[in-house]
Design a protein that fits this description.
40% strand; disordered N terminus; Hypothetical Protein Aq_1857, Chain: A; 3 helices; alpha+beta; globular; 6-stranded mixed β-sheet
């Protein structure tokens, strides 16, 4: 019973996924800038919410920590409900270089893919 509960909890916390390109880019930046990739959502942008991403060595008491390979992602507890099953990708083309967010919870997003609505 305890083992099954532990597996369910792990599945719940694996709700944020990274593509191979995102993993590669994050690993290239991680150690000099911080131990954790701090990820969140705040009000703003042209659709109501926008993503926040930065590196840090400190996490808050109620942050959800998601381990993805060697990458530790800290998500604040309020943002966590908005990013369930989120896929974080990284794109590097002639026209665009940066993170792309594929959020199945979003009902709309702007052209730059940095803000969304729920």
């Amino acid at each position: 019973m305890k083992e099954n509960l532990k597996k369910l909890i792990n599945l719940y916390y694996m709700s944020v996924q990274l593509t191979k390109q995102a993993v590669k880019h994050i690993k290239s930046l991680l150690n000099p800038q911080g131990e954790f990739l701090k990820f969140g959502v705040k009000s703003g942008g042209c659709n109501g919410f926008e993503y926040t991403v930065h590196f840090t060595d400190k996490v808050d008491k109620f942050d959800h920590i998601v381990q993805y390979n060697d990458i530790k992602i800290a998500i604040d507890s309020i943002s966590f409900m908005y990013v369930k099953n989120l896929i974080i990708d990284y794109e590097n083309t002639l026209l665009y270089s940066g993170f792309k967010f594929h959020n199945p919870n979003a009902t709309g997003s702007c052209g730059c893919n940095k803000s969304f609505s729920i």
